Amino acid sequence: MGDMGTTRPFRQSPAPGQPVVAFDFDGTLTIRDSFTAFLKWKVGPERWRSGLLAMAPQLAAYALDRDRQRLKEAAVRRFLPGMGAMALSMEAEQFAREHWDRLMRPDALGVWNDWGRRGAYRAIVTASPALTVQPFADRLGADALLGTDLVTDARGWFTGAFEGPNCRGEEKVRRLRAAFGPDVRLAAAYGDTSGDTEMLAIAAIAGFRVFKGRP
Fold first, then answer.
1. What pLDDT is stored for residue 5 in this prediction?
2. pLDDT > 50? residue 198
3. 151-178 pLDDT tens trace
4. Is 7:130 a contact under the CB 8 Å cutoff?
5. Cα atoms found within 13 Å of the Cα of residue 24, Cβ hemisphere only
């Protein structure tokens, strides 16, 4: 197994007593799944359509087993062949510049900024690849980004495998505990799917589908 496509280190660790707030990214801070939007933008409409046709067996399997990780790994193999972390990071930067105003929920940004003014430590916890979310996290001024990491081979190309489980459900809590300690308790958490349930359960304020705003 080669290295993995990971994010930069956290900006800092939470100070003693500093509230920690966790935000899901896709559908919470954004209006739609950002990784799907990124892939469609990257390959263009024709390659996107042909790629989905080629992935028909994986899509059919997902309809039965609901295995998001297997489907996303197949999408990485299909749409990111011969690509490594540096190239993906550069394209993700361009995508974020072009799509920020089309993707970000204004009411979610308001709450994000309010927690910042209150001195909270703000973390994004997402099932999307961390490398594609990193430019958005940088622009937001996130203190931490916990996302799905992509494994690369000896050539530095993505294999399609994930480093560990897809970052959703219980994995979000496991990643939070690994980052902030086994007894981490969130001041607030925000999410929009069943994949956020466990994270919301360890938060004093559990914001489920509270953001409705559109650009």
1. 45
2. yes
3. 989 998 898 889 889 999 999 999 999 9
4. yes
5. 31
